[in-house]
Amino acid sequence: MTPDIKTAITEKVNELILDICPDAGFTSKYGGTLIEAVAGDPKTAVGGLFFYEDHASFEFSKGADLDDPNGHLEGKGKFRRHLKLKTAEDIEEKQLRNFLQQAF
Q1: Which pTM was predicted?
Q2: Nearest-CA neighbor of 58 among 18, 24, 95, 5?
Q3: SS3 of 47, please?
Protein backbone atom coordinates (compact mmCIF):
# COMPACT_ATOMS: atom_id res chain seq x y z
CA MET A 1 0.00 0.00 0.00
CA THR A 2 1.44 3.33 -1.02
CA PRO A 3 1.86 6.14 1.52
CA ASP A 4 -0.65 8.26 -0.45
CA ILE A 5 -3.37 5.60 -0.23
CA LYS A 6 -2.62 5.07 3.46
CA THR A 7 -2.95 8.81 4.11
CA ALA A 8 -6.19 9.07 2.11
CA ILE A 9 -7.76 6.15 3.98
CA THR A 10 -6.65 7.50 7.36
CA GLU A 11 -8.01 10.98 6.66
CA LYS A 12 -11.39 9.73 5.39
CA VAL A 13 -11.83 7.26 8.26
CA ASN A 14 -10.93 9.89 10.87
CA GLU A 15 -13.30 12.39 9.24
CA LEU A 16 -16.16 9.87 9.39
CA ILE A 17 -15.45 9.02 13.02
CA LEU A 18 -15.37 12.66 14.12
CA ASP A 19 -18.54 13.41 12.14
CA ILE A 20 -20.37 10.59 13.94
CA CYS A 21 -18.77 11.07 17.36
CA PRO A 22 -16.97 14.43 17.81
CA ASP A 23 -15.67 13.37 21.25
CA ALA A 24 -14.07 10.14 20.00
CA GLY A 25 -10.58 9.31 21.19
CA PHE A 26 -7.70 8.03 19.06
CA THR A 27 -4.92 5.99 20.68
CA SER A 28 -1.88 4.49 18.96
CA LYS A 29 -1.64 0.88 20.05
CA TYR A 30 -0.90 -2.58 18.64
CA GLY A 31 0.60 -1.04 15.51
CA GLY A 32 -2.57 0.86 14.62
CA THR A 33 -5.03 3.39 15.94
CA LEU A 34 -7.71 2.39 18.43
CA ILE A 35 -10.93 4.39 18.56
CA GLU A 36 -12.90 4.98 21.74
CA ALA A 37 -16.36 6.58 21.96
CA VAL A 38 -15.18 8.34 25.12
CA ALA A 39 -11.59 9.51 24.81
CA GLY A 40 -9.37 7.83 27.39
CA ASP A 41 -11.91 5.13 28.32
CA PRO A 42 -10.82 1.78 26.83
CA LYS A 43 -14.14 0.23 27.89
CA THR A 44 -15.79 2.29 25.13
CA ALA A 45 -13.55 0.90 22.36
CA VAL A 46 -15.31 0.81 19.00
CA GLY A 47 -12.47 -0.71 17.04
CA GLY A 48 -9.29 0.27 15.28
CA LEU A 49 -7.60 1.01 11.98
CA PHE A 50 -4.60 -1.12 11.05
CA PHE A 51 -2.43 -1.19 7.93
CA TYR A 52 -0.93 -4.21 6.23
CA GLU A 53 1.17 -4.65 3.09
CA ASP A 54 -1.71 -4.51 0.59
CA HIS A 55 -4.73 -3.28 2.57
CA ALA A 56 -6.05 -1.46 5.60
CA SER A 57 -8.39 -3.12 8.03
CA PHE A 58 -10.96 -1.46 10.23
CA GLU A 59 -11.51 -3.91 13.08
CA PHE A 60 -14.78 -3.63 15.01
CA SER A 61 -14.58 -4.66 18.66
CA LYS A 62 -18.17 -5.96 18.64
CA GLY A 63 -18.50 -6.53 14.92
CA ALA A 64 -20.47 -9.74 15.31
CA ASP A 65 -23.33 -7.62 16.68
CA LEU A 66 -23.48 -5.32 13.63
CA ASP A 67 -26.19 -5.61 11.00
CA ASP A 68 -24.49 -6.52 7.70
CA PRO A 69 -27.12 -7.38 5.06
CA ASN A 70 -24.65 -6.91 2.17
CA GLY A 71 -21.95 -9.16 3.61
CA HIS A 72 -19.14 -6.61 3.75
CA LEU A 73 -17.76 -7.60 7.14
CA GLU A 74 -15.16 -10.35 7.29
CA GLY A 75 -14.10 -12.66 10.08
CA LYS A 76 -15.68 -15.47 12.05
CA GLY A 77 -14.55 -14.75 15.59
CA LYS A 78 -16.90 -14.69 18.54
CA PHE A 79 -16.88 -10.86 18.71
CA ARG A 80 -14.70 -9.09 16.15
CA ARG A 81 -15.32 -8.41 12.46
CA HIS A 82 -13.37 -6.27 10.02
CA LEU A 83 -13.59 -4.42 6.74
CA LYS A 84 -10.69 -4.67 4.30
CA LEU A 85 -9.97 -1.38 2.58
CA LYS A 86 -7.62 -1.31 -0.41
CA THR A 87 -8.54 2.19 -1.60
CA ALA A 88 -10.18 5.26 -0.10
CA GLU A 89 -13.19 4.53 -2.32
CA ASP A 90 -13.72 1.24 -0.44
CA ILE A 91 -14.76 3.30 2.59
CA GLU A 92 -17.99 4.30 0.88
CA GLU A 93 -18.45 1.13 -1.18
CA LYS A 94 -18.22 -1.07 1.91
CA GLN A 95 -20.47 1.24 3.94
CA LEU A 96 -18.02 2.07 6.72
CA ARG A 97 -20.21 4.99 7.88
CA ASN A 98 -23.14 2.64 8.48
CA PHE A 99 -21.00 0.26 10.54
CA LEU A 100 -19.43 3.08 12.54
CA GLN A 101 -22.87 4.52 13.33
CA GLN A 102 -24.00 1.14 14.60
CA ALA A 103 -20.80 0.65 16.60
CA PHE A 104 -20.94 4.06 18.28
Answers
A1: 0.93
A2: 95
A3: strand
